[in-house]
């Protein structure tokens, strides 16, 4: 099955990086971030100063105990920082990889859905799943109509998922085979052109082509299994699949993630195997140009400024404070001129290209900007989460936080259910 996505465009952040091979780096510190699980009310099972092994439980959610976070690697908890209303800001671990053997999980000889769900919860992997609509972590008792595995990335400067999956094909295939148990519907493996993926019975390969946002889960869901007012599908990224396969093969969690470091602020792009939640300052140390830069966890389009690598991010970006000019400078300048002033949403060609394939950007942006939930729902809000509007926000020059507006609308629609 092949889908060519119409529209979209690839923002220009310099030449496409050449990731030559893969290297490794174990940072001194890592962090689990509250922003990775918004709204969590943490019940801690460890205290500052505690020595933890890879896989040891760190905290769960007060209202949903299945939202379990475990230590990505062995070390000492050196900081537990809380945010507003006692929400979690971050939990920092100073690594000592060899200090304790990783925790071993019991993997059943015969895996069924209940056993798989219980294992994923216990090992902290359940929190990698997301629902559409609303982009929430699913309830274990629910079953999706379909499951989507995202093994394509069209974000600017992103590494090729095939380069990460190929050396770990055994784990990826094992994870794919197990994940079919989560749904009685179809399991889709969405990948790019030319990618060679493991063939797994019961998993439907879907090849997507086109510029960004052709690699987003929202685009895949719209083309293969659109969700309406009542339907629900789940999705997760390819590194979460590798992590599950590693757990099933070895009985211990995968203590690594592979991230691409790129941007006009680095001397040479590199594909780096590191520890989840790694300190970005350490990852980029010795790799930056002699100029002021800002570090993002994620891509230049939808990444976020911070000290640590966020969960689910397969890239980190170093960008000079004076950005590389866009190729289509005339179009971009025209869009900036049209959108300046009162903040009214005025149609322009760049918006049409940057919008998700099915979206009418101008009426939709007007609806979410004023909180018109009914119009936003009719125009497709239930198929979207924040990342789907990141390219639109970039095309707008970042003057409006469309992701936050969408989240407010989704929260209101969810409350009506």
TrEMBL record:
Residues covered by the NqrA second alpha/beta domain: 111-252
A Gene Ontology molecular function term of the record: oxidoreductase activity, acting on NAD(P)H, quinone or similar compound as acceptor
Residues covered by the Na(+)-translocating NADH-quinone reductase subunit A C-terminal domain: 258-304
Catalytic activity: a ubiquinone + n Na(+)(in) + NADH + H(+) = a ubiquinol + n Na(+)(out) + NAD(+)
GO terms for biological process, alphabetical: sodium ion transport
Domain of life: Bacteria
Pfam families per record: NQRA_2nd, NQRA_N, NQRA_SLBB
UniProt entry tagged with the keyword Ion transport: yes
Catalytic activity, EC: 7.2.1.1
InterPro entries named among the record's database cross-references: NqrA, NQRA_2nd, NqrA_C_domain, NQRA_N
Keywords, ordered alphabetically: Ion transport, NAD, Sodium, Sodium transport, Translocase, Transport, Ubiquinone
EC top class named in words: translocase
NqrA N-terminal barrel-sandwich hybrid domain residues: 24-96
Chain's role: NQR complex catalyzes the reduction of ubiquinone-1 to ubiquinol by two successive reactions, coupled with the transport of Na(+) ions from the cytoplasm to the periplasm. NqrA to NqrE are probably involved in the second step, the conversion of ubisemiquinone to ubiquinol.
Assembly description: Composed of six subunits; NqrA, NqrB, NqrC, NqrD, NqrE and NqrF.
Family note: Belongs to the NqrA family.
Name of the protein in question: Na(+)-translocating NADH-quinone reductase subunit A
Native species: Arsenicitalea aurantiaca
Gene expressing this chain: nqrA
């Amino acid at each position: 099955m092949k889908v060519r996505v119409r529209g979209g465009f690839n923002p220009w952040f310099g030449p496409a990086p050449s990731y030559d091979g893969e290297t490794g780096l174990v940072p001194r510190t890592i962090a689990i971030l509250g922003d990775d699980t918004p709204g969590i009310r943490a019940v801690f099972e460890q205290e500052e100063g505690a020595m933890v092994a890879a896989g040891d439980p760190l905290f769960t959610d007060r209202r949903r105990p299945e939202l379990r976070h475990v230590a990505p690697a062995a070390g000492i908890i050196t900081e537990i920082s809380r945010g507003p209303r006692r929400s979690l800001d971050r939990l920092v671990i100073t690594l000592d990889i060899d200090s304790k053997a990783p925790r071993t999980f019991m993997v059943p000889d015969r895996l069924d859905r209940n056993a798989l769900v219980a294992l994923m919860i216990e090992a902290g992997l359940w929190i990698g799943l997301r629902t559409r609509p609303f982009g929430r972590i699913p309830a274990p008792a629910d079953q999706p109509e379909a499951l989507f595995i995202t093994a394509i990335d069209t974000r600017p400067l992103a590494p090729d998922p095939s380069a990460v999956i190929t050396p770990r094909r055994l784990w990826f295939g094992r994870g794919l085979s197990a994940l079919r148990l989560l749904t009685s519907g179809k399991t889709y493996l969405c990948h790019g052109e030319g990618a060679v993926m493991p063939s797994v019975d019961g998993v439907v390969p879907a090849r997507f082509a086109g510029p960004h946002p052709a690699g987003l889960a929202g685009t895949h869901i719209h083309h293969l299994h659109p969700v309406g007012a009542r339907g629900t599908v789940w999705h997760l990224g390819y590194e979460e699949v590798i992590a599950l396969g590693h757990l099933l093969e070895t009985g211990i969690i995968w203590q690594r993630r592979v991230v691409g470091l790129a941007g006009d602020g680095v001397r040479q792009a590199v594909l780096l195997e590191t520890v989840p939640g790694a300190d970005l300052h350490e990852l980029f140390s010795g790799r930056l140009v002699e100029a002021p830069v800002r570090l993002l966890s994620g891509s230049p389009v939808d990444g976020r400024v911070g000290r640590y690598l966020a969960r689910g991010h397969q890239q980190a970006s170093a960008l000079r404070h004076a950005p590389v000019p866009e190729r289509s400078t005339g179009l971009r300048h025209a869009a900036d001129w049209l959108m300046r002033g009162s903040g009214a949403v005025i149609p322009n060609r760049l918006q049409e290209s940057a919008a998700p394939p099915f979206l009418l950007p101008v009426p939709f942006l007007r609806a979410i900007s004023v909180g018109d939930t009914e119009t936003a729902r009719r125009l497709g809000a239930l198929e979207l989460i924040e990342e789907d509007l990141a390219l639109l926000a970039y095309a707008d020059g970042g003057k409006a936080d469309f992701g936050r507006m969408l989240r407010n609308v989704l929260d209101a629609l969810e409350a009506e259910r």
